[in-house]
Amino acid sequence: MKPCTLRRLFLPAFSLLLSACSTLPPAGIVPVSGFELQRYSGKWYEIARLDHVFERGLSDVSARYIPAPDGEVRVINRGYDTAGARWKQAEGRARFNGQPDVASLKVSFFGPFYGGYHVLALDPDYRWALVAGNDRSYLWILARDKTLDPEVKTRLLQQAAALGFETDKLIWVSQTRTD
To answer: Which CATH number fits domain 23-172: 2.40.128.20, 3.90.1150.10, 3.30.1490.20, 3.30.930.10?
Structure first.
């Protein structure tokens, strides 16, 4: 087969693969602007999430974001595996998709493979956040404390539902263990 023919076959397939691995937000979703990484850094507790294999069976989930001098962000996710009766931890890194004042990042826990991380709503005092992945099957509600004010929770659920997320499928994460 000629090299030209190979390019015609592999270029569309490669382009399709890259588009499937997009780290951009889902259509119709705009990440928060005016974002300040230094204020976002530190520990966040997972209040709710849509179910995924990598977090299945975990309670007491938290995430810690640590800015690095090169502009990357060190990410440490931790949760308690109730079936295994032990803590699990994953470390990764995040990079901004564009300007650092727009809360649209790509996160990797597995080498060169990245997923989207987009802050859709953020408390002015950085006390809670609504976060999505690259599509509407990824959603998290995070807070600086282990509980969230019921009024804030209601507003975030309404906002997520209006954006097309299946909020009735959220898992409300138990936060009862000491850190």
So the answer is: 2.40.128.20
